[in-house]
Amino acid sequence: MIAYKGIHHVSLVVRDLERSVAFYKKVLGLQEIERPPFDFKGAWLAIADGGQQLHLIVHEGQTLRDGAIDSRDGHFAIRVGSYKDTRAWLDEQGIAYDARPHAKAGFPQIYILDPDHNIIELNADFCDE
Question: Where is the VOC domain positioned along the sequence (predicted)?
Answer without folding.
Answer: 6-125
